[in-house]
Amino acid sequence: MRLLQLKAENFRLIRTLSLHPHGRLNVIFGANAAGKTSLLEILYVLGRGRSFRGASPQEWEGPDRPGWLVFGRVEHPLSALRQSLGLRFAGEQTEIRVDGRAATSLDLLRTLPVQILEPGMHKMLQEGPVYRRSFLDWGVFHVEPQFLPLWRRYRRALRQRNQLLRAGADDRQIAAWEPELAEAGEQLDAQRCAHLDAIRPAVLAGIEVLIGEGEWHFDLYPGWTRTMALREVLARQRTADRRLGSTQAGPHRAELRIRAGGHRAKNRISRGQQKMLIAALLLAQCTEIGRRTGRHPVLLIDDFTAELAEPYQAALLAAIQAYPGQTFITAFTRSGVLARELDAAVFHVEHGVVTSSAD
Ligand SMILES: Nc1ncnc2c1ncn2[C@@H]1O[C@H](COP(=O)(O)OP(=O)(O)OP(=O)(O)O)[C@@H](O)[C@H]1O
Ligand SMILES: [Mg+2]
Fold this sequence. Notes:
alpha/beta, Rossmann fold, Glutathione S-transferase Yfyf (Class Pi), Chain A, domain 2, 2 domains, six-stranded mixed beta sheet, 15 strands, 23% strand, globular, binds adenosine-5'-triphosphate, binds magnesium ion
């Protein structure tokens, strides 16, 4: 998806914003606290209806109270279909519109896929399985139309079984939900595996270019022992689940295992390598989404140069330039590899005011 125009009002320190981005690379320079991350946040909110900084819509409100506004015009690269997306917060709730009609965050998600590489993404390697599952599921959501209905079916059956476990219901009542849980669960697992298999070659190729040679493994533990059918596992674990008050097996317990040279990646690679690994994962996934749907996600990279010396910066920049989708990257100054002549739109942010170098 390509963003043709972006507007915002009173979003954090950005009082008013209007820009026409480049179809591929956009570079945003600015000092600390200038508003770079806020600008990426506006783009992210436009595609997801929420922020990667975890803050609530009230906190995005700038000094010109009440409310804030975010608007974008996007173009489907294959069909040239144009759509407008808008969010408005007027002090109580956020109103979302797609092509002028009332819409939901899910409509935004479907219309404008956006992904971000920012310092918080290190959680994907450093913290629990939920971060790696959500990485994988975001990709499956975009390539597999049946993912969301299946996931809802699964959550519903899981909730019902868990309630019965906690209420001390008898075996027959609990078992009644297991065929549904197992069927939806195994299909979810199959979709995740298919997506991981689809992106793995590009992830490995990306790592070789971005980090160098090494032995890497990406495997999905489904959330139960694969040698047994999920339905059988659920029946066997019923007594233990009753004791714990929740279902212990199933795709809600899945884990994407990342191993470098036979060890868990998080214990083995440097901070800069972690950033490059996450970049390889995101680029491979976004490329796959583009290949399958014809709509490459907009990729945001905050603090592009942070944690990276020049060879890594050069490799990452080359990978971004090879990505067919639109990208936005931020940095403090036009130095290092960003000092080169780039086929890009360049913007500067100062105290929340964004200007284009071409102006
Ligand atoms: N709701 C708000 N209203 C007004 N200003 C805000 C609001 N929320 C945050 N700010 C201010 O916006 C400023 C810019 O934040 P932002 O994170 O976008 O800067 P940045 O350019 O990414 O800086 P850095 O390079 O240090 O990451 C901060 O000084 C912050 O205090
Ligand atoms: Mg920032």
